[in-house]
Description:
Strand order of the largest sheet: 3-2-1-4-5
Strand content: 25-35%
Low-confidence stretches: 14-20
Helix content: 25-40%
Amino acid sequence: MKKVVNLALTLAVAAMLGACASSSPDVIARGDAQRMAQVQDGVVLTVRPVVVDGSQSGIGATVGGVVGAVGGYGASGVQREAQVLGVLAGVAGAAAGNAIERFSTREDAVEILVQLKGGDRRAIVQAKAAEILAPGDAVIIVTTGGKVRVTKAPK
């Protein structure tokens, strides 16, 4: 029984780490490499911090429910009691797993308002990057495969 619980916990950790994908403008997806991108020039009007809410794919709830049910079932030697404990622990584990997934995939980001050379304005939300943008900065907006990122314009 201890091996089953250890295996379930190992799978839970692996699933949670697998769900931690980055949306940083400093990280380019493999599929976007060696692709032509559209580039627009602009000037930063405002930058404000925002938080991108975490995902709820169901993986955290599923893993948490399984781990809770297995752990709860093994907590008692009486069959009927073990079943009830398994169900209750499974529900609690699912709720906890969902909350852990949502919290661990939450991300600090910035909303950047940019005025393009033609006068149009664009608002882009992207994860915080090593590069700090400020109002008045000349920037380029790079669009690749439907994804957009803002970076300082080369001088």
